[in-house]
Design goal:
The complex is a heterodimer of chains A (174) and B (91).
Chain A (H helix, E strand, L loop, with lengths): L7 H26 L15 H33 L8 H26 L11 H25 L11 H4 L8
Helix pairs in contact in A: 1-2, 1-3, 3-4
Chain B lengths: L8 H26 L4 H12 L2 H28 L3 H7 L1
Classes of the chains: A mainly alpha (174), B mainly alpha (91).
């Protein structure tokens, strides 16, 4: 059986797809359902209809970027799946998904919430606690993903590596 | 066994009128509430473009760019460190 050692393409795809999946959870659950975390809610608090629409447009642009990241990740995953030198490792892929999601939350939390202050997770009293919790959740996901990716170093079977097990036995030669 | 009464023209007319009024009401309410080009919607879109659009776009883009760079780095590192050629070279 051949061994696959180039994990890079799978890692890259997983990180981008994790960012996309995390971004969609953020956008759907926090922005839309809970009406928290709107993109420019500290610059332009959504307290009237125009301001709500203003934030809604920026939330839409955030979703557009999230969609583009997911699409690029999917294309990279497709290409990685065609390469026999890329190990088709569940641990590497799930780990990189978690790393992407966690990394995005940590970066977004530090840059947008703490440094630039353009929005907060849940504006109002106790917003610092929500912001720090958001960053902490990102770091926890990043660490868990890193551990899973490290564990996946032992996986060397390429995609379709078990094909010979599924193949019907060759007919006996007379 | 129950016998179905044949539908008269009046019945068909009622159904058509009901569906038409439902469609018209839906269209009117969607037009009013969706507000794709009402003054409020136009104002919001104009303000998005007028109020530091480029800066805000960069703020929205920044985390994605960082993750993209990290993804690129991971692709290069992951492709380099455990290449089969280097494994064979050690044997």
């Amino acid at each position: 059986m051949s061994t696959a050692r180039h994990r890079g393409p799978l890692l890259a795809a997983g990180i981008l797809l994790g960012t996309g999946m995390g971004g969609f959870v953020d956008g759907i659950v926090l922005h839309q359902i809970l009406q928290w975390h709107n993109m420019l809610s500290s610059v332009r608090p959504p307290i009237d209809l125009v301001s709500m629409k203003y934030n809604m447009i920026w939330d839409g642009l955030f979703h557009a970027l999230t969609w583009a990241t997911t699409a690029i990740g999917l294309a990279k995953l497709w290409r990685a799946g065609k390469r026999p030198d890329v190990p088709w490792s569940t641990r590497t892929f799930v780990g990189s998904l978690l790393m992407g999601w966690g990394l995005f939350n940590a970066i977004e939390g530090v840059v947008d919430h703490q440094v630039l202050g353009v929005h907060h997770v849940r504006p109002g009293s106790g917003e610092l606690a929500w912001d720090l919790g958001f960053i902490a959740s990102g770091l926890v996901m990043l660490a868990a993903g890193w551990a899973a990716v490290r564990a996946g170093r032992e996986d060397t079977t390429p995609r379709g590596g078990f094909a010979e097990l599924r193949a019907p036995p060759a007919p006996a030669q007379s | 066994m129950m016998q179905r009464r044949p539908r008269s023209r009046a019945d068909v007319g009622h159904v058509v009128a009901g569906l038409s009024s439902f469609a018209f009401t839906s269209w009117v309410s969607a037009t009013v509430w969706a507000c794709p080009s009402c003054p409020v919607g136009r104002t919001a879109r104009q303000q998005v473009l007028d109020q530091e659009f480029e800066t805000n776009l960069m703020i929205a883009l920044l985390p994605f760019l960082v993750v993209g760079l990290v993804s690129r780095w991971a692709e290069r590192i992951g492709s380099r460190s455990r290449a089969p050629e280097s494994q064979e070279g050690r044997r």
